[in-house]
Every structure is written in C-alpha cells, then in structure tokens.
Design goal:
Layout (H helix, E strand, L loop, with lengths): L1 H45 L2 H48 L8 H26 L3 H4 L3
Helix pairs in contact: 1-2, 1-3
Length: 140
C-alpha cells in the first residue's frame, strides 16, 4: 500500500512537470505567433512580399504548434486532476489500516524536484533565445 502511495506521488510529480513544461511551451508558441505577425506587417510595410509570405508561413506553423500544445495541456490538466483525486483516497486507506503515518519527505522532495525542473527549463529557454535562426536575422 505504501508502494502504491509512493508510485502515485511519483506519477503526480511527473505529470505536473509535463504540465508545467507544456504551459511554458504554449506561452512560447503564442509569443512566436505574435513575433511573426509583427514580421509579416514589417515585411509588407517594406514591400517585400517574399519575406512577408515566409513570415506568414512561420506564423501559421507556430499557430499549429500552439494548438497542438494546448490540446496536450488540456489532457495533462485532466490527468493531474484525476491523480490528485486518488491521492487523498489512498492516504485515508493507509491511515485506516494503521500502517503508520505518511512520511513528510514527499512534499519537500516534490518542491525540490519542481524547483530543479524550473531551473533546467529556464536554462534551456535562455540558450534558445541566444541563437536566432537565419530567417530571424533577415528582419534585423
């Protein structure tokens, strides 16, 4: 029973990490859509139809990406809710069977894992922002 609780908590941690990553990716995709929209307008203002079409193509790709991520995020939200509903039920069963109190290690472990994940995600985003693509250089 305690193994089940540990497995459930691990599953919750993994799904929440995926959920947070999906949220960040969705926000990034939305920002990219806005960036390429501005580039479409800038290209049209300059009279460069080819560059405008390329920028529009990139914008459409990011819209599609954002929609896919949004669908994944909705599924992850449902998964997290279901897992969180199961956790107190399992905890009550363990308490009723008097198998001992639940360790308090799990919340702090979860917080450490979440902080580490956020740090890694921030680092990868920073690296991505430092290297603009060749297409992006055409707008500067």
């Amino acid at each position: 029973m305690r193994d089940d609780l540990s497995n459930l908590r691990s599953s919750i941690i993994e799904v929440i990490a995926l959920q947070k990553r999906a949220e960040q990716e969705y926000n990034q995709a939305q920002a990219e859509v806005l960036k390429w929209e501005k580039r479409v307008k800038l290209s049209l203002d300059k009279g460069d139809d080819f560059l405008a079409k390329e920028a529009l193509r990139h914008k459409k790709n990011h819209i599609n990406t954002a929609n896919i991520i949004k669908n994944q995020l909705e599924k992850l939200n449902i998964q997290v809710d279901k897992l969180k509903e199961k956790l107190p039920i399992l905890e009550r069963k363990i308490n009723q069977q008097s198998l001992g109190s639940i360790d308090t290690i799990y919340p702090s472990a979860f917080e450490r894992m979440e902080a580490k994940f956020m740090q890694l995600e921030s680092s990868s985003q920073a690296i991505g922002e430092l290297s603009p693509s060749d297409m992006e250089r055409g707008f500067f």
